[in-house]
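Encode chain A's predicted structure.
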Amino acid sequence: MSAGILLVDDEAVFREDMASLLREEGYSCETAGDGEEAFRRASANAPDIILCDLVMPGVSGVELISRLANLCPDTPLVIITANATVETAVGAFRAGATDYILKPVLAEDLFRKIERCMEQRQLERELRYLRRHISENATGTTIIGRSNAIDSVRALIDRVGPSTSSVLITGESGTGKELVARALHHAGGDDHTPFIAVNCAALPRDLMESELFGHVRGAFTGAHRDKPGYFELASGGTLFLDEICELSVELQPKLLRAIDQQEFYRVGATRSTRTNIRIVAATNRDPQRAIAEKHFREDLYFRISVVQIELPPLRERREDIPLLIEHLLARLATRLNRRVTGVTNAAMRALMSAPWRGNVRELVNVLERAVLLADSEQIDVGDLPRELSGTEFAAQTADDLRTAVRAYEREHIRQVLLSAEGNREQAARRLGIDASTLYRRMKDLEM
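Encoded structure for chain A:
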């Protein structure tokens, strides 16, 4: 079983002998002579297993284990020591160690522990996958698609979801920003914490502060009782601030302070209220342009965009459309109690070539209309809106679905190459693939 191992020990001879032994057994092994070097290496390239001496100059093994456990929470940490005591062992395990090995190290014992760590790591990954899969099915947070762009989004959700860092989701209206926000929330693993979604564009300007932070009785005319705001209701969970660039400039400093300090004042209150929330924000505007136009504070932007996830428009990931149609039809047929199982090839061609200015939201509306109007189990061109059923691309390709998808892909690549003035590197970036993949696809499509 191959694994990437980080070996940390201040004794150079022991360190190199151990590294040679591990490499001879087929493991990839990096070494570090002290805690700071180990932390740098683990930060640059997360290892599968860390073998760490417990007694070292500078940063102690226990302190390093604690730091590494926070940096790489899924990585098994095995301590190596010649002087194990109950106190040091307890301290190491409390800091995050998962096993230990005594010096002098026996090869059989070392390899057995590495194998056990790898098995444990694989089981934990499978358990997380199953939990996430069950959670996604139960909460409707499945991210549908196989394009490189969507694969990148899913990878970011997996990495960022379990943390509490603020995330900013950007993309056109209808691309699924709230779906990604919910997926981030559920990736944390606790489905019992609140997820509160707020559309900032829909908040009345004179009530924005009260809606976000709440108010006390008598704070203003009509405030007949204390009322908690969204910050309070989301405590312990996630507050999703959709269209955050629409917040008034006057309220943005208070929002920044509430996020930084994890406390806020209800309108009219003299005492602050503590909270513990994660902020996930979204906007369909260009944040940098909003900052340049003085509509959005730059310091607030930096605070909410620790990680930024950009969602591509549907027209830039058309290879995902068949999967989306299959997924959405199953949901719509159940909800509307209609027996519709798929679409004809002609309808698929029309759906693949539509401009989709409203993105996935528009696709949902088109399919819902088609499910209601369809006279058979297959949606046909006549069930689609006229502006979709008469598209040029739908009329010029064969009925065979594989041929139709291939013809669309060829045409889409051609259009992107034209817009990039023949620059294949630039076209590959726009398509969300690397240049070598573009060359292969062009060869396969006989372009």
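The domain at 315-444 is CATH 1.10.8.60 (Helicase, Ruva Protein; domain 3).
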